[in-house]
Amino acid sequence: MTTVFDERFACHPADYVNYDTERLRQEFLVPTLFEADTVRITYTHVDRMIVGGVMPVAEEVKLETVDTLKADYFLERRELGVINVGGPGCVEVDGTVYEIGTKEALYVSRGSKEVKFSSNVKSSPAKFYINSTPAHRACPTRKVGQGDAQVIELGASETCNQRTLRKLLVSDVLETCQLQMGMTELAPGSVWNTMPCHTHSRRMEAYMYFNLPEDQAVCHFMGPPQQTRTIWMANEQAVISPTWSLHSGVGTSNYTFIWGMAGENLDYGDMDHVQPNELR
Ligand SMILES: O=C[C@H](O)[C@@H](O)CC(=O)C(=O)O
Ligand SMILES: [Zn+2]
């Protein structure tokens, strides 16, 4: 197995406006998450979130520390959220095995020394999407299945934004330090996520789009509401949303995405809303 590590620095909104397409993609897009028997992790200095993907195929894959963390093990000072977007698999945390089916989640406590990922069926490997953030204390490791989620229905077909939001690893469901994660699924024919959109300078966010047909795309919007830019995204790619940025997208078909947040509060409803006709 291999670990592929990449580091991104935080960026000022006054500089961001001068970025061209390539530079925007370099700073904010995480283009590859899932590669056989590999842990791919991107460390963003925006709230120090790590965004990554683990796809075990032929072997069990271990979450190993990287030199940049200067930690004896990956979760020495961090908590971890895992959501499986592939076939059924297992996550073993210090000897305890958790069966994680498609669209199920696992919260892993700070202080967990050994985290190992495996797929149940090689021909349909698990794809574990991960977010990890600094943690000041240990909260219990826990699996969160679809039935444990807090579900919210949003939007309408008339405005092409009908979607089901599932809060998985959030404060209403279980205890975490700062990490909050969930999944939003667009209804067939609906293409707009997070519209009307919002910002929340108290928290950064990362989005990972999946279940998007390979020949389709999502146009992701970012930036201060009056200075937006777009990043065209493919299936199973992630994008970093700095604290000053909105995050919304429109697809050429429907899709599902995972959102993950980190920052100074756990209040999902803390948002500064922006109406579509206010955007520039
Ligand atoms: O701060 C919250 C996040 O942006 C997402 O949860 C929004 C979302 O999934 C949606 O509206 O579709
Ligand atoms: Zn948000």
TrEMBL record:
<dbReference type="GO" id="GO:0042840">
    <property type="term" value="P:D-glucuronate catabolic process"/>
</dbReference>
<dbReference type="InterPro" id="IPR007045">
    <property type="entry name" value="KduI"/>
</dbReference>
<dbReference type="GO" id="GO:0008697">
    <property type="term" value="F:4-deoxy-L-threo-5-hexosulose-uronate ketol-isomerase activity"/>
</dbReference>
<protein>
    <recommendedName>
        <fullName>4-deoxy-L-threo-5-hexosulose-uronate ketol-isomerase</fullName>
        <ecNumber>5.3.1.17</ecNumber>
    </recommendedName>
</protein>
<comment type="function">
    <text>Catalyzes the isomerization of 5-dehydro-4-deoxy-D-glucuronate to 3-deoxy-D-glycero-2,5-hexodiulosonate.</text>
</comment>
<dbReference type="InterPro" id="IPR014710">
    <property type="entry name" value="RmlC-like_jellyroll"/>
</dbReference>
<dbReference type="InterPro" id="IPR021120">
    <property type="entry name" value="KduI/IolB_isomerase"/>
</dbReference>
<feature type="binding site">
    <location>
        <position position="200"/>
    </location>
    <ligand>
        <name>Zn(2+)</name>
    </ligand>
</feature>
<keyword id="KW-0413">Isomerase</keyword>
<keyword id="KW-0479">Metal-binding</keyword>
<feature type="binding site">
    <location>
        <position position="247"/>
    </location>
    <ligand>
        <name>Zn(2+)</name>
    </ligand>
</feature>
<dbReference type="InterPro" id="IPR027449">
    <property type="entry name" value="KduI_N"/>
</dbReference>
<dbReference type="GO" id="GO:0045490">
    <property type="term" value="P:pectin catabolic process"/>
</dbReference>
<dbReference type="GO" id="GO:0008270">
    <property type="term" value="F:zinc ion binding"/>
</dbReference>
<dbReference type="InterPro" id="IPR011051">
    <property type="entry name" value="RmlC_Cupin_sf"/>
</dbReference>
<comment type="pathway">
    <text>Glycan metabolism; pectin degradation; 2-dehydro-3-deoxy-D-gluconate from pectin: step 4/5.</text>
</comment>
<dbReference type="Pfam" id="PF04962">
    <property type="entry name" value="KduI"/>
</dbReference>
<dbReference type="GO" id="GO:0019698">
    <property type="term" value="P:D-galacturonate catabolic process"/>
</dbReference>
<comment type="similarity">
    <text>Belongs to the KduI family.</text>
</comment>
<feature type="binding site">
    <location>
        <position position="205"/>
    </location>
    <ligand>
        <name>Zn(2+)</name>
    </ligand>
</feature>
<keyword id="KW-0862">Zinc</keyword>
<feature type="binding site">
    <location>
        <position position="198"/>
    </location>
    <ligand>
        <name>Zn(2+)</name>
    </ligand>
</feature>
